Amino acid sequence: MSMYPKQVRIVEVGARDGLQNEKTIVPTASKIELIDRLSACGLRSIEATSFVSPKWIPQLADATEVYTGIEKKSGVSYPVLVPNLQGYERARAVNVSEIAVFTAASEAFAQKNINASIDESIERFRPVIERAQADGIKVRGYVSTVLGCPYQGEVPVADVVRVAQRLHELGCYEISLGDTIGIGTPKKAQEMLAAVAAVVPMTSLAVHFHDTRGQALANILACLELGVSVIDSAVSGVGGCPYARGASGNVASEDVVYMLQGLGIETGIDLDRLIATGLWLSAQLGRETSSKVARAAA
Amino acid sequence: MSMYPKQVRIVEVGARDGLQNEKTIVPTASKIELIDRLSACGLRSIEATSFVSPKWIPQLADATEVYTGIEKKSGVSYPVLVPNLQGYERARAVNVSEIAVFTAASEAFAQKNINASIDESIERFRPVIERAQADGIKVRGYVSTVLGCPYQGEVPVADVVRVAQRLHELGCYEISLGDTIGIGTPKKAQEMLAAVAAVVPMTSLAVHFHDTRGQALANILACLELGVSVIDSAVSGVGGCPYARGASGNVASEDVVYMLQGLGIETGIDLDRLIATGLWLSAQLGRETSSKVARAAA
């Protein structure tokens, strides 16, 4: 029998990573309601929005309105994505307390997705991290394509390690390792996580799985066995990666929490309320929930 | 890192457990084509049909025609379900080489599903097993509701152990432990399997998960870690349990094989061909495949 962590923190990414990749544009008021419902479920980390240029991602053009509209619950963090100094200034203007920066482990993906080499992308957000640190704002780092890339295929584990270590050295308090195209399997996920954990403390790592091939929960289980205690997921399984074939997006928070409860791991989350929130969100998006736990409960 | 088995045998249950629980009645010729396609994928155990009374399960009234119609490939076993001596005679008449009998770990489920107590159900198929052994026919045993019951809720592990041990003593060469309503989580699955493996050799055990709450692959992974090397699954994830809420049925064989390949475990199965077979079957049923691997590949 394995050694699982006693507690896990879920980083709920539905409102940002999720909605940014949905075709349906959700009204600002509904985004605010979503985030407030999520905090009422007991979630302590809720990614709220992205201060990226509206030209790139029109779904999130209302970042300022969303962030200022949500009820800031005590003890809950509402990180926002920030791609550059302009975005940082907008985020700073609404008094965010946590930001997230992102890059890739795959050079080909970085070029296609953020139009820069990995090193250039890091140089681009290095001043963002420096400013945030000076301003007392926490910084989370995302590394995408950690188990495979739609353009270059295999991504060497050494590349994931190098990028994660760099983000850690630059001051990210937590690095989220993302299987952006949902291609990984449990042993490969463990090998990748173990390699990164050899240079960045496990307590500073999170895992982020998409369920494109149905492997997300098995991958999460395998990573829990190594001691990871932070998991990214999206209520109702919203989102997806526009570069990945197949409709499936983020692993559904409901299904993750159901598994964690069964493993006896504390999350502080009210599952019934989370299921209700996911079903409400699916109705907003006009599609069936991707959470099997929610479907079984409905 | 865990000790997985080097090889796993998949018991493909789509043609029986799957189609029996689908609303659409598949023509006999298509059932035969399905089974022949499955054997061409490299599957070595393909449950073909059930010699149950057509009054109970009209979907499988063509058992004799299906069994006599399929190409019996060398090295492939085609078990058929047999509920009683009448069914056994029909199966024997077409020269089956393997049969399966079934009962439950939950007393309430046995009463509702097979209209008998667990002990009565065992007494009912005891002469079937005796006849099969005298005739040189292998017998597989199914135990359902091993992780929970829709009627009585919790199912004590001791009840699963008792029933599995009984089937083993009666001469079943393999016992398939089924989470019929897809309610289990990995640690509970491990605890149940470990308890049964204390009295029945692990080499005589199989696991059978439904994906009702999305937990099937994680549960399978957890059981692989304990050394189980036989997994029941259904191509395209067909089927379901009429007693379980939510639409989800058997775990999809494609998703299981994808995971096993990623773990470096041999199955002898051609995944591309299996995906094609599942997509063909979904088209026959007029619904989308439940295999995420198939969706990602389509």
UniProtKB/TrEMBL annotation, chains A, B:
An annotated GO BP: ketone body biosynthetic process
GO MF annotation terms: hydroxymethylglutaryl-CoA lyase activity; metal ion binding
UniProt keyword Hydrolase, yes or no: no
Database matches in CDD domains: DRE_TIM_HMGL
Domain (Pyruvate carboxyltransferase): residue spans on this chain: 8-275
Gene3D superfamilies in the record: Aldolase class I (3.20.20.70)
EC nos: 4.1.3.4
Similarity comment: Belongs to the HMG-CoA lyase family.
NCBIfam families, per database record: PRK05692.1 (NF004283)
Name of the protein this chain belongs to: hydroxymethylglutaryl-CoA lyase
Organism: Pseudolysobacter antarcticus
